Amino acid sequence: MDAIVQTLLAHPWLAALTVFLCWHATRAVYLIYLSPLAIFPGSKWAALGEYWEAYWNIGTRPGQKGQTLFKLEEMHKRLGAALRMGPNEVHVYDPQFYHKLYFPNSKFYKDPSMHKVLGAPTSTLAESDPIRHKQRKAPLEPLFAKRNMQALEPMLMEHVNHCCGRFDEFYDAGKPVSMEWALKSLAMDMVSQFAFGKSLGALDDPEFKSLPVQVFKQYLPSLHIIKAFPFIRLLHKLPRWLTHRMSRSIAMGHELEQFAARRIDDFVAQKDAGKLPSFPTIMERLLIPIPEKGYIVPDKQGLRDEILTTISAGDDTTGIANMVTLYNIVRNPVIHSRLLAELKTVLPEPESHAPYPELEKLPYLTAVIKEGLRYSSPAASRTPRLVPPGGVTLPDGRYVPAGTRIGMAIYHIHYNDSIFENPRTFDPDRWLQAPEEVARLSRFMVAFSRGSRSCLGINLAYMEMYMAIGYLIRRFDFQLAGTTPADMAWDDMVVPEFHGELLVVPKRRDS
Ligand code: HEM
């Protein structure tokens, strides 16, 4: 013993290494065997840190990254409804429990450390403090209300028409359209025009690969890496000329930030000149303080973060929901012809127009859209919350202490065969059953989450989907151009990242 002590005293680096190893060994024993969360089964690696999640989520090849979601599904089926997911995290699979976590005024708040990865801590999306969140949401909540959405219809219609015109160019040139890029561009132009009063012009890009659409497509997957290695955020502190050489994504991200900052300046200049768009915009609302609700106009960086997180929340999600829905219509002749027949009742000619409330009333289109949202689950990943003081008891009687991170994944609800029969089948008819059955299913249709932190853009997203799916299917006879189900397999890179492309030939209908 003396000899060991002498050696350590003689070699301070060895002493430091020994302390380091002993500390980690003690911590590992505590986390795996003694912590209150040790009662939950799961990978030992998950109990120790971010390694397990990083191992399954980070990679380069399709099918070898973004796999945590699927791995959890498989493990839950083997090991039960609650799993150890991290040193301080439990993951739950039981659909009934969803409504205990996510409901209005839930005390299960967002975990600030989790949302730090977004890099916009004061935005409505990332804010975890319930009071500050309410203040941030104050100008946006009424703006996104359904009654306001009607005023956006002409603007959204212009983008649908523009998108159709671009499809004609592809058809005339004999080129198939990559629908993921095209529909994300459509969603981008819709949401950015709602944000700034002027779109970012994503549909004008020759291949639908404009800077903003590319940045969000690349940025969201990088969140897995930032979560596992948070120090990567420090790269932003390095001189820009250096980070731009190191990473094209960072360079593009900065370009987008500057672009958004210029758009904010333009908006303010237009507003000062008394020139506001004819429809309500996010920018306009963000610039009006609401003292009685504690809302103070953010500084320029706060405005930029708010706008960019809102655009990012509304672009990929809606684009993916539309693409997956469209794919399932086009590859399914029975669904396709039934939908087209219904659309013809309100859109007798391919170029006809119907007011949005008429589209919304179509039962089959509604069923197709609900099924598209369930099936695509664009925000599939777990959305963790913190257990409030007093802890929580799970349905099986196990206790989870206060301060534990606890989460569930929307995908696990939507693909749970105890709720949705044959969940891997795209079946709009499930939404046309007896009212009690539809009410039961609707309780578990959680694409937009539930409660105080559910999607602010739900009404806009529905409107975009009704208009995109309704008009595109009525106007075009889409043919798949070689896309297979394997291309449509996806990895969970915060939003689904598909293994291949949905390529279609957009042929106009004559009647
Ligand atoms: C099909 C399309 C969409 C889906 C599936 C979707 C889904 C979601 C989900 C699941 C959340 C909760 C995230 C969490 O718990 O951390 C959320 C939040 C949010 N979404 Fe959406 N979303 C969609 C479209 C949109 C659109 C079009 C916008 C706006 C332009 C939008 C803006 C937001 C915002 C601002 C939040 C944060 C709300 C808050 O924390 O109070 N989303 N969305």
From the spread of the alpha carbons, the general shape counts as globular
The CATH superfamily name is: Cytochrome P450
Strand order of the largest sheet: 1-2-8-5-3
Distance between the termini: 92 Å
Residue stretches low in confidence (pLDDT < 50, at least 5 long) are: none
Number of domains: 1
* DSSP helix fraction: 40-55%
Please outline the major beta sheet.
5 strands, mixed
Number of strands: 12
Please name the CATH topology: Cytochrome p450
Mean pLDDT: 93
Bound molecules: protoporphyrin IX containing FE
Backbone structural class? alpha+beta
Fraction in beta strands? 5-15%
CATH class: Mainly Alpha
Notes on the structure:
Belongs to the cytochrome P450 family. GO terms for molecular function: heme binding; iron ion binding; monooxygenase activity; oxidoreductase activity, acting on paired donors, with incorporation or reduction of molecular oxygen. Keywords: Heme, Iron, Metal-binding, Monooxygenase, Oxidoreductase. Heme binds at residue 455. It comes from Didymosphaeria variabile. Helix 11 (153-172) packs antiparallel against helix 12 and helix 12 (179-196) runs antiparallel to helix 17. Helix content is 53%, strand content 8%. The strands form 4 sheets. A 5-stranded mixed sheet has the order 1-2-8-5-3. A 3-stranded antiparallel sheet has the order 4-12-9. The protein is an alpha+beta fold and 511 residues long. The chain is built from 23 helices and 12 strands. It has a single domain, classed as Cytochrome p450. The radius of gyration is 25 Å and the shape is globular. The structure holds protoporphyrin IX containing FE (HEM). Residues 124-125, 137, 191, 310, 313-314, 317-318, 321, 378-379, 383, 447-449, 453-457, 460-461 line the site of protoporphyrin IX containing FE.
